[in-house]
């Protein structure tokens, strides 16, 4: 039963951050609130559709919060939820691993 639970947890985490664009979006949101166009410009190569889908999935997984301000034109900001913030150590560890790996290749 422990093995099954561990596999379910790995699969869940993989679904949340298993996508390149979700991971990079979460990385950006660690520092501050972001608006959609800011995110799109900061993520070189992401299409509007892919970013929209990634944001919607992260929102449905309660990782990010989408805040709409009643202005004209509407202003929308994205931020990490408490659950998203709790992933900070995981994202930092992945960043450190990436840097170490890159250093070994150079």
Shape: globular
| Overall mean pLDDT | 86
Helix content: 55-70%
The biggest beta sheet reads: 3 strands, antiparallel
Alpha-carbon distance between the two ends:
43 Å
**Strand percentage:** 5-15%
| Regions with little confidence, pLDDT below 50 for 5+ residues | none
Number of helical runs?
6
Integer-rounded radius of gyration: 15 Å
Quickly give the structural class. Answer: alpha+beta
What is the ordering of alpha helices and beta strands?
A: HHEHHEEHH
Strand order of the largest sheet: 1-3-2
Number of strands: 3
Can you walk through the features of this model?
- By secondary structure, the protein is of the alpha+beta class.
- The model has no long low-confidence stretch (mean pLDDT 86).
- 64% of the residues lie in helices and 13% in strands.
- It is globular, with a radius of gyration of 15 Å.
């Amino acid at each position: 039963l422990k093995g099954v639970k561990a596999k379910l947890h790995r699969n869940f985490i993989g679904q949340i951050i298993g996508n390149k664009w979700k991971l990079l979006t979460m990385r950006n949101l660690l520092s501050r609130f972001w608006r959609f166009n800011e995110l799109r410009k900061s993520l070189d190569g992401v299409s509007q559709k892919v970013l929209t889908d990634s944001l919607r999935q992260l929102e449905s997984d309660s990782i990010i919060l989408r805040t709409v301000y009643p202005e004209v034109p509407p202003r929308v900001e994205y931020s990490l939820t408490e659950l998203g913030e709790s992933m900070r150590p995981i994202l930092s560890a992945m960043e450190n691993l990436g840097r170490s790996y890159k250093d070994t290749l150079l």
